[in-house]
Design goal:
The chain is an alpha+beta fold. The protein folds into three domains: about 60 residues; about 180 residues, 2-Layer Sandwich (Heat Shock Protein 90); about 150 residues, OB fold (Dihydrolipoamide Acetyltransferase, E2P). It contains twelve helices and 18 strands. A hairpin with a 2-residue loop joins strand 14 and strand 15. The longest helix is centred in the N-terminal third of the chain and has 22 residues.
């Protein structure tokens, strides 16, 4: 009897149905706000209406949260297949090691499970090939012959932290610095701090491997990982200690259904910028504006640093019609740009560096519901989705990483 009762507590539901339900709940919230904030209601004395509308909004927010939770699955579905791959890695590299899984009960968005498989496999291969020493080297260093790679998941606030840690040799600072000087990333006399050096391993084509193997030496892998995590609105933290090992932590949102964003207005369009990539917001002085005559580009000199400027109008058009796709006509529009000194500059961070987005107005910060771009909107350059705002309006959620790559920031 108890076994039957336990079985009845679970239902097998297609992930596509849950995603559809989440979309419908988002549209329900949008429609509700359109009704409760309708201009025709302004000035009317409706007894109890404001309280009832507020309660309805709270209820819909709760339904959105619960529906988003339906898409959460245990991270064990992502972790356990890695154990099977670990046996093959140990045989291929000749480095016996144990893959330890921790935090398998932590739940993450099903979409993340699908997107994290390849990045995690890259990190585990890197930990084994670059991090773990050979059995002879480990014995000479007083370590057990069998190495150890730990794959951990933990929830911290609204983020999931997934860490790949090894007990190997740690990153070779001297080799990374030498390679960085060879490739021109740092000057011959520069002495960058450790964190700056560690970030170089995420550069495309950067490798300190002396020989090319099936697993390393081609300069691919870590840049792929970083790009994949940035596309999930996440970031990477790396720690290393000589002789003790390295840990790489992927910090990603618990769910991709919602986005903590800064909502801005540029001409007649609204945009939602992920709050995690916003580095600075300021109104520049006219003296800080720099015009580059060679390519007609604009920059802002701020605190001794030049920040390149990318105008949203050049990417998405002037806002009088549908947002433009990759259309040169948008970039070459003859409409006159507003002076940068009359704009608010939002400085954002991408893997290619920082760049500034001039906007007319900062609307505010809010959590928005994200829906995918479909139909003709699918090809919009720099768009990550449609953001449903609490005002009932729709904004374009910006893919800052894609913008940075497209614009060469």
């Amino acid at each position: 009897m108890n076994a039957n009762t336990q079985q009845e507590n679970f239902l097998r539901v297609k992930a596509s149905k849950v995603s559809l339900l989440l979309d419908l709940v988002g549209e329900l919230g949008l429609s509700t706000l359109a009704v409760t904030h309708h201009p025709a209601l302004q000035g009317l004395e409706l007894v109890g209406f404001e309280m009832a509308a507020h309660q309805l909004e709270l209820l819909i927010n709760e339904v959105q949260r619960v529906t988003a939770d339906l898409r959460l699955v245990p991270v064990s579905g992502l972790f356990r297949p890695m154990q099977r791959a670990a046996h093959d890695l140990a045989r291929e590299t000749g480095k016996p090691f144990e893959l330890v899984l921790e935090g398998e009960e932590i739940e993450i968005d099903k979409v993340l499970v699908d997107e994290l498989k390849d990045p995690l496999m890259h990190l585990i291969r890197n930990a084994v090939d670059h991090g773990l020493e050979s059995p002879a080297e480990r014995a000479a260093a007083g370590k057990p012959a069998q190495g150890r790679v730990t794959l951990t998941a933990a929830q911290k606030g609204k983020d999931i932290h997934i860490t790949v840690a090894d007990d190997g040799r740690g990153l070779n600072r001297e080799a990374i610095l030498e390679k960085a000087r060879e490739t021109g990333l740092v000057g011959a006399s520069e002495e960058p701090d450790d964190q700056t050096l560690w970030n170089f391993v995420f550069k495309a084509g950067f490798s300190t491997a002396a020989q090319v193997s099936n697993l390393s030496g081609r300069g691919v892998g870590m840049d792929v990982v970083q790009n994949a995590i940035r596309s999930l609105r996440g970031r990477i933290a790396l720690e290393t200690h000589a002789g003790c090992g390295t840990s790489v932590t992927l910090i990603i949102p618990l769910t991709l259904a919602f986005l903590e964003s800064m909502v801005v207005r540029s001409q007649q369009r609204l945009f939602a910028i992920p709050i995690d990539v916003v580095q600075q917001v300021f109104k520049p002085e006219a003296a800080e504006v720099v015009h580059i005559s060679a390519d007609q580009s604009e920059m802002i000199r701020r605190q001794g640093t030049l920040v390149s400027i990318s105008r949203l109008r050049h990417i998405f058009g002037n806002g009088n019609g549908a947002a433009g796709q990759d259309n040169p006509a948008n970039a070459n529009s003859s409409a006159e740009d507003v002076a940068l000194s009359d704009q608010v500059i939002v400085v954002v961070e991408s893997s290619r560096g920082r760049f500034g987005l001039p906007v007319d107005e900062i609307v505010g910060e809010q959590q928005v519901v994200i829906k995918p771009l479909q139909g003709q909107l699918r090809g919009i350059r720099g768009g990550a989705g449609c953001a449903l705002l609490s005002s009932g309006e729709i904004a374009v959620a910006l893919d800052v990483e894609h913008l940075g790559q497209t614009l060469g920031a």
